Amino acid sequence: MERCSWANTGNELLKEYHDQEWGMPCHDEHKLFELLSLEIMQAGLSWQTVLNKRAAFKTAFADFDVKQVQNFQAKLPQLMVNKAIIRNQRKLLAIINNAQVVVKLAAAGTCFNDYMWQFVDYQPIVHQYQTHTEVPSTNGLAKKISQQMKRDGFQFAGPVITYSFLQAAGLINDHVVTCFRHQH
User: Fold this and answer.
1) Binding residue positions for Zn(2+)
2) Within 28-109, where are the H helices?
3) CB 3 within 8 A of CB 18
4) What are the tens digits of pLDDT across the range 66-83?
5) Between vectors from CA 156 to CA 104 and to CA 75, what angle results, nearest 5°?
6) Phi, psi of 140, deg, nearest 5
7) Is the pLDDT of residue 184 over 70?
8) How far is the C-alpha of 2 from the C-alpha of 85, rounded, in Å?
9) pLDDT digits 0-9 by tens, 95-150
10) Averaged pLDDT of the chain
């Protein structure tokens, strides 16, 4: 079975993530918020590092329940000493802030799923890359979405993080054409 080259490192978590999640259209509110939060944590680090700490993040962030996370300001000191997670204060504060934004969007009648998927007309964009080296770190769509997310109050949502999130959540399918997940 052929898969994207980045998933062939020998790390089972990475392979499983590639095979079962990455690039697969996600419409689950909790999962979308989790993926955005994990992409924030990944900035400047390897995705493998984040995956290795994913279970600890889920525990520390109440399984990424935005209704709980929006009130985590008081838990920041506790998060900052939790050695099982990445303890970057700016990233932690961004996750709390972003939970607040998602809750505000929902209160205004827009669920996070609709907020994100409207940018791609509710249809995944499927690229036709031959090799992983062709896959960009961002594109015009991610820049546009990033700008809107920032206007709406999201933090740590630059174009590179946004593009990675779009890939992770399946709004963009960047599996190379030879990968078994390209045509899911």
Assistant:
1) 4, 18, 175, 179
2) 29-42, 47-60, 66-69, 76-80, 89-107
3) yes
4) 999 999 999 999 999 999
5) 65
6) -60, -40
7) no
8) 32
9) 999 999 999 999 999 999 999 999 999 999 999 999 999 999 999 999 999 999 99
10) 96
| Residues known to be catalytic | 17, 39, 47
Dihedral angle sign, alpha carbons of residues 159, 164, 165, 167 = positive
Task: Report the number of secondary-structure helices (H) and strands (E) in the chain.
Answer: 9, 2
Determine whether 138 is exposed, middle or buried from the number of CB atoms within 10 Å of its CB (0-12, 13-18, 19+).
Answer: middle
Binding residues: 4, 18, 175, 179
C-alpha span between 176 and 3 (Å, rounded)? 8
Q: What confidence score (pLDDT) does residue 18 get?
A: 96
The encoded tokens of residue 157 equal: 């949502």
Q: Count other Cβ atoms within 10 Å, centred on residue 135.
A: 17
Contacts 24+ apart (CB under 8 A), 101-104: 101/152, 101/153, 101/154, 102/29, 102/33, 102/66, 102/70, 103/66, 103/67, 103/70, 104/153
pLDDT at 94: 98
Q: What is the pTM of this model?
A: 0.95
The residue assigned the tokens 């790390």 is: 11
User: CATH: 1.20.140.10, 1.10.340.30, 2.60.40.10, 3.40.50.300. Which one for 7-173?
Assistant: 1.10.340.30
DSSP string, 90-133: HHHHHHHHHHHHHHHHHHTT--HHHHHHGGGTTS-EE---SSGG
